[in-house]
Write a structure and sequence with these properties.
Layout lengths: L12 H13 L3 H6 L4 E5 L4 H6 L10 E4 L17 E5 H11 L4 H16 L4 H11 L1
Parallel strand pairs: 1-3
Antiparallel strand pairs: 2-3
Keywords: Hydrolase, Metalloprotease, Protease
GO molecular function, one term: metallopeptidase activity
Pfam families: Zincin_1
Amino acid sequence: MPLPWTNQTAPSLDDFARLARAAFDDLPDPFRTLAGDVVIRVDDFADDETLAAMDMEDPFELTGLYSGVDIGRRDEMGPAAEPARIFLYRRPILDEWCERGDVGLDEIIAHVLIHEIGHHFGLDDDQIHHIEESAD
């Protein structure tokens, strides 16, 4: 008898987008409202230019990225900023999910999404990690 997952395929970019949308929709109202204008995009990997800018050679190292001007540094009277975007990278997230084996894929996607929303709010990695550690 074949194992139940032997006829399954890896979640697609569209599947990831649905999981990211569900994670975003599950955020408390104040956070969702503040993050409301951010565009969420799912790609297999970061492009070469992004990896070079982040000084990374291995595309599996980057699971997500915030691109834009955080809401604390926007100038309402100045020129329009680039749209705020969060990139979720499917293949590195799948790798992390497989390596961990102790959480659901939806939890990892939500974690990466929330981390990048933290950057949208103007938090740096150290501040985000401190908040995450405090919540545990």
